[in-house]
Amino acid sequence: MFAFIIRRILQAVAVMLVISLVVFAIQKQFGDPVRDLVGERVTPEERQQIADKMGLNDPFLVQYGRFVKNAVTKGDLGRSFLYNKPNLEVIVNHAPATIELVLGTALIIIVLSLPLGVYCALKPRSLLSRFTMSFSTLGVSMPVFLTAILLIYLFAVHWRILPSYGRGETVDLFGNGIWMTGFLTIDGLKHLILPCISLSTLMLPLFIRLIRSEMMEVLETEYIKYAWAKGLSPRRVWLVHAFKNTLLPVITVFGVQIGIMFAFTLLTELVFQWPGMGFMFLEAVNRADLSLLIAYLVVVAALFVVVNTVVDILYGFINPTVRIAGTK
Amino acid sequence: MSHLLEVRDLEVKFALRSGDITAIDGVSFNLDPGERLGIVGESGAGKSVTGFAIINLISKPGYISRGSIYFEGNEISAYSLARMRKIRGNRISMIFQDPMMTLNPVYTIGFQMIETLQAHRNISKTQARAIALDKLKKVYIPSPEKRLSQYPHELSGGMRQRIIIAISLLADPAIIIADEPTTALDVTIQAEIMDLLQELCERDRMGLILITHDLGVVSQVTEKIAVMYAGKIIEYGPTETVVHHPVHPYTIGLIGSIPGSIEPGKDLKQIPGMMPTLTNIPPGCAFNPRCELAADICTKKTPVFEEKQNGIMAACHMK
Question: What interface predicted TM-score (ipTM) does this complex get?
Fold first, then answer.
C-alpha cells in the first residue's frame, strides 16, 4: 500500500511538471514583462539591459527551471497588477470561498445521490424511482445560470427566506486571516444554500444515474447470485456485497468531477456574486491581468491533480486488485 | 418413507413479453442422504434451472409455475423468501460453474466465509473463523491460515473452486448442488475437484446433485442419472445401468458420442441436428426430429415417462 501511495504521488508530481511547462510556455508567448514594467518610453537598448537583468534572454529551459524553483521554494507565481499583490496571495485569499462552495456542493451530491441511486437500482419500477429519473433528466438539461436565477427569484425575491448574493457573515477559521469560513455561522450557511444547490443540479443527476446503472449491473453478477445462494439477507447482499462494487467506478468519476467543479464554479460565482476564485478569474479576464490568469491556471491544475491523487489512493484502499498491481 | 429431497412434477416458466415459455416441464426425482445424482443434458435443457429452482433462486423472469419440492418432509417450494434463506447455504449449498466469477472480488476469503456462518448461526467471529479453517483443511487447501486474509484474485481457479466447496461445507449441509463445478477448470484440476466432492459426500453422508453436460464425469461420481432434454427428464435410473444399457435413443446417442466408447480410428457418433429452442419445441416427443427410430406416433403423442427395463424410467414410444 505504501509503495502504491508513493507511486501515485510521483505520478502527480510528473503531471504538475507537464502542466507548469505548458503554462510557462503560454506566458512566454503572450506576455512581455519588460513592457508591463516600464511602458513604451524606453529605448530598445535599455529594454535589452532590463531583459538581461531579469534573465529573459536566458535559454528557455533555464527560465523554466527558475519559474519552477521560485514557485516551489518561495511560492512565487508572479505579481498581479490588478490587486498589486503577489498572485498566490490573491488566489489564496479567494480560494476558501470556492473551496467551501465546492465542499457544500459535494456534500449535497453525496448525501442525495447515494441513497437515491441505490434505491432506483433496487426498485426501478417504483413511483419514486420514475420521478427521480425524469427529474434528473430535467436537471441535466437546465443550464446552471438559469437554475440559479430561478432559485434566486423563488427563495430570495418571492419568499424572501434566503439571501441572494455574497457569502454573508464569515469568521476567521485559523485566526491568521487566511481562511474566512462561512460554515460556522448561521448567516454564512444560509448564504451557501442557494449557490450549492444550483451548482449541484448539473452533477447530482449524473451521479444518481451513474450509481443506478452501476448498481444494476453489479446486481446481475455471479457473485451477487452466489451471495443469495449463501443465504445472506437482502440488506447484506445489497449494502455489503453490491454497494462496495458499485462504488468503485463512482469514486473515480467523483474525483474527476470534483476537480472539474473547481473550474466550473465561474457561472455560479458570477450569478451569486460569490467572492471566490471563479469571480476573481472573471475580473482578471476583464482587466487583462495575464499574470494572475496564469497563476490561476497553475493553482486550479494543482487542485485538480491533488483531488484526483487523493481519490486514487482512496480507490486503492477499497479495491484490493489495484493495490496489488501497485505494489508489484 | 419420505426422501431427503423430493422434486415432484416441477414446472418452471419464464414470463416474457411475448408470453410465458416453459423451461422445465414436469420434472420429478428424489435424493436420499449420501446419495449422488447426476443431471445430464445439453446446454438449454433445463439442468441449471432445475438446480436453482430447488433453492428458489431462478433468475428473473423465471418462476415455479407448478409442482412442489419437499426437503426433509417440508414443502420448501411454498416457503417465503425469509424462510428459504435459512435453507440456502445452510441445509442446501450450491457450487457455481465459474470460480473466477463466484467470489466477491473486494472481500477477503475469510470475510466471505465468516459472514456465511454468521448468517446461519449465532456464533462469534473467532468461532466462525475456527470452523472456516477446519473446512479449508477438509478441502486440502495448503496454508489455510494465509488464505483467510487473501483476496480472490490472488488465488488460481482450482484453488478458488476448493474455497467455494469449503464455503458450501461450512454449515454442514444435507445437500450440495454443484452446477457444472469443473467446466471452467483445467482437465487435471477437474479430476481433483470431482474426487474431492465424492470423498466429502461419502464421508459426511451428504446428498449431491451434480449438474453437468459431461457424461464421463457423471458416470464416475454418481449413483443415479437423470438425462434431460428440452426441459424434461427423458431417462432416469441407476448410473451403471443407464451408462451400459441406455433405453432412450437420445441417451444412446450421448453415450455413443463419448470418445473412448468406440474403437480408436473410427468416427465418433453424432446426434444429428440441434436441441430445439424453448419457444419452438416440436409436438409429440421433443426428440423426434433427431431420432433414428422416430415413427408416426412420435410426432403426435407425447410419450409417457414410465419404467422400461432394469429399473430405468424413460419416455419413449419405441422402447
Answer: 0.92
